[in-house]
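Q: Predict the bound structure with zinc ion.
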Amino acid sequence: MAHFKGILLHSPLFFKYFAHSSVQGITLYPFILVRHQSSLQDKLLIHHEQIHIQQQAELLIIPFYILYLSNYVINLLIYKEHYKAYRNICFEREAYGNENNFDYLRYRRWGAWWRYLLKTKGK
Ligand SMILES: [Zn+2]
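A: Predicted complex:
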């Protein structure tokens, strides 16, 4: 089955006003926004964001953000540190864990992010 891969946009103004300087890409279904023009060729970053496209599509977008934020807040209580809390959000665990496997979205199962909630802590 062919998956929708998102619409790529180079959006420096969005990042200037709405994102921390460390953020290079963000997925707001159906768009993948990147800070730098050069990131349009960054296969790893784009693939990471395409995994988020799939997660957002299957959760019908708004519930994705609610779950994403809830998971982050719970993780902050657990890890007491932004970066660890962010990296251990189940959606990020799935995206970081598979971003360099470019076949991933071809065989990924619907709702695969769910399993990553139960994994033991990562980075
Ligand atoms: Zn991500």
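A: The two ends are 32 Å apart (CA to CA).
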